[in-house]
Amino acid sequence: MISGTSVSKGIAFGKALLLKDEKILINKKNILKKNIDKEIQRFYIGQKKTIEQIKKIKEINKKKISKKEEEIFNSHIMILEDYEFENEIIYLIKKKLITADYAVNKIINKQIKTFKKIKNNYFKERANDINDIGKRLLKNILNYNILNLNYIKDKVILISKDLTPSETAQLDLKKVLGFITELGGITSHTSIMAKSLELPAIINTYNVTKIIKNNDYIILDANDNKIYINPDLSTINLIKKKNNIYIKDKKKLQKNKNLPAITLDGHKVSIFANICNLHDIKFIKKYGAEGIGLYRTEFLFMNRDNLPNINEQIKSYKYIFKKNKDNPIIIRTMDIGGDKNIPYLNFLKEDNPFLGWRAIRISIDYKEILYNQLKSILLASIYGNVKIMFPMITTIEEIYYLKYELKNIEEELKIKKKKIKKNIKIGIMIETPSAAMMIKEFAKEVDFFSIGTNDLTQYTLAVDRGNKLVSHLYNPLNPSVLKIIKKIIDDAHKYNKYVSMCGEFASDEKVTLLLLGMGLDGFSMNSSYIPQIKNIIRNNKYKDSKKLANLILKQNTLKDILNCLKINKFK
Ligand code: PEP
Ligand code: MG
Description:
Elements: E1 5-8, E2 11-19, H1 36-60, H2 67-81, H3 83-96, H4 100-117, H5 121-141, E3 156-160, H6 165-170, E4 176-181, H7 189-196, E5 201-203, H8 208-211, E6 217-221, E7 226-229, H9 233-254, E8 261-262, E9 268-275, H10 281-287, E10 292-296, H11 310-323, E11 328-332, H12 360-365, H13 367-380, E12 385-390, H14 396-415, E13 425-430, H15 433-436, H16 439-443, E14 448-451, H17 453-461, H18 479-494, E15 498-501, H19 512-517, E16 522-526, H20 530-538, H21 542-553, H22 558-564
Parallel strand pairs: 2-3, 3-4, 4-5, 9-10, 9-16, 10-11, 11-12, 12-13, 13-14, 14-15, 15-16
Antiparallel strand pairs: 1-5, 2-6, 6-7, 8-9
Magnesium ion is lined by residues 391, 431, 452, 454-455.
């Protein structure tokens, strides 16, 4: 039995499937003249295999892909079949007497370099195509096992060193029962995605990809942070019983899902849902959310090859707004960067991506993104009770600029006689200490605040939220983070502003009373956590939660805070 950090509740039983991300090792070695034909043959076999694989992926995804994506697959095949490409490789093998993989690698790098030199988006995309196709071709020449998530046949538990948020978003839930990774952070977007998909997940496991083998029978008990490898029958039966109780309890809590989040002494707060995509909408009703407190629109921009255009965005927003007609919906402009990469935007490699070109900084610099997104939101606004929220704000100038842009787009739409909602409320996420220190000034500019503890914790403590090496230092219960949260709430109330929390901290049942006592007006979380949090609020007194908050805010160390909360470990 091994353990790690449980990031998304639930228990899964199934066979292990290992995802190996192998580094491609190219053979630099020279070959003898007599082996030329053998090397050319290796190239041809790899080429044939690669073309077949791409055709198969295209075929499997026929119904899911757009015309544009189909063209990309076709262009990949064309590159592989290109006569000049083939000839250059064969020429190198013959003249320079080098291995097929070395020759392919050389030609691919040369082509990527040439395309990258041309300052034009079309050629940048071609460089990406060559890179993609080149890697696949090399792996096939070297006989690496290429695993495509589309090929998964049986129900499995994925075991991997790491998973990116976009890979997680792509998982086929009919086949994937849960996942275990070696890396990751509790508030990384992969973990957030796992919650949103209701997939049991444990991260931060030591060497799991070496310990677990393909087809091992696994019990992934994310409720208890335990992973059983080929357990005996009595363990299987025991955990199955435990799972039945867990499912029963969950259903029982759901019965009260539509009751208000009101304490025994009459203090009411709001409970909203965090959503990542259209798939999450069904959970809003299922778990009794009073609206959407955070719609992470960046997932609309992932797993595709170009920016979503205005019509595509309107379609998605309209769908969400219509499904939640009267409930408030806070739509956050896209928050790309950090751990959420978008290959087609060709980001430069940054040493500190979380401190770099991320979220609102990209929207402000990449005008087309902001303009199209705000315009789409406005054009869909008549269909729901929408509010707009901006992520990762650090300066007042940013909000001046964003409001100015929004006003311009409103004017433009008015002139075109388009119907849009009037006086849409504007809010910002408080995720940086700089924003937290300026609540008074921001209060003059915006209607509401939402505390993003996932980032606020990392920026306050200078601890990368996804870095395993410093994960023991990442804790929103750290007294400095709690003091900042309290300051944000108090300052927001001083200027009569509504303040909620949409970081993962808001869904932690161990701190619900603490946050309530600190004066938070609203909690926004992954829907499946709502019944439990409501249950805690409904069964306690506000008066007592205030006492608890006062006591905790007097503590100077994390250890003392944990003692006060009577917990030994946070998550
Ligand atoms: C946060 O930082 O707390 C937040 C909700 O935003 P995200 O997790 O998407 O960065
Ligand atoms: Mg954030």
